[in-house]
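Model the whole thing, not chain by chain.
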Amino acid sequence: MQVALVIGDVVATRKDASLSGVTLLVLQPLDPEGQPAGRTLVAADAAGAGVGEQVFFVRGREAAFPFFPVEPPVDAAIVGIVDHWSAEGAAPASRA
Amino acid sequence: MIVGRVVGPLVATHKHRKFEGSKLLLVQPLGEGDVPRGPALLAVDTVGAGVHEKVLLVLDGKAAGDAMRKKAAPVDAAIVGIIDYVDIPS
């Protein structure tokens, strides 16, 4: 998994039927210091997250598991909303 | 599997139910000579690892779910060992 900041949402009217009702959010992955790290991506939301929140997400086939018994064609899913973390004893990054 | 170093704990009250009771740790993957390699990632700890410890990681959903002893957990990385040392004879 990785930590990310939710920076936007994606609206797609025409899409795979099993994606109906699934919220799609744009994520910016973060490094342990809370700085942007790597490319943005789109993830299905399984945690009820919103723009501006820090989340963690899972990649790969397991991203579809939270939507069981539906198996949407997704390769990334938000599975938690981050309260805080610490890195090497540094001050905990606060929830945005 | 890869080797990494535990950077710190992450707390998330609101998370998927399969993560309940699991400890989440940020881990920095390491290359040869313990040089940081690639971005830090978040892994489920199944062995009781602590900050600064060198650990063995699986980066696969099936393996990580097996380590958690849970079926269909939305997880892709897990700490499965604490490394005493790595010996690569030259």
